[in-house]
Amino acid sequence: MREVTIDVICPNCANKALFNSAYEGNYVKSPSKNGKVTCKSCGFNAPFIFSNKYYFYQIPVGNKILYARTLEDLIVLRNYFQKNFINAEARDPELDFPKIFYIRRKEIVKKINVVLEGKTLHN
Question: Where does the source fall among the domains of life (predicted)?
Fold first, then answer.
């Protein structure tokens, strides 16, 4: 069984930790909400029920939040939105991201760059 790892906010110390769970679902595979969190900072190591509020990489965009599972995924998202505002490609925003993400893509790139420079945006 394949597992997924997500960078999360440690529920004990609020530093970056790792959430591991199995994929579930038959057609569209997604991580199980039930898994385990391990934190190198405080030693937290316990079963955990995941929710979106624990994503370590959260980029607020208007009344929505752009989530990234890992640092690598965050970089992919930054590059995607950066490319799409430089090239101004015509896309139907409803196909993959909410329309507001395309409207505010420069803001997204700026905020992701802040995170990549070592600052965080999560609460």
Answer: Bacteria
CA 5 to chain centre: 11
Q: Is residue 88 part of a domain?
A: yes
| Nearest to 95, CA basis, from 84, 86, 106 | 84
Answer yes or no: do 45 and 77 share one domain.
no
In a domain, 121, yes or no: no
Number of domains in the chain: 2
Q: 3-state DSSP helix/strand/coil percent for the chain, to nearest 5?
A: 30, 30, 35
Q: What amino acid is encoded at 120 in this protein?
A: T
- 34-55 confidence digits (pLDDT tens): 999 999 999 999 999 999 999 9
Q: Write the DSSP symbol of residue 99.
A: H
* Rg from Cα positions in the chain: 16
Instruction: Identify the domain containing residue 70 by its residue range.
Output: 57-116
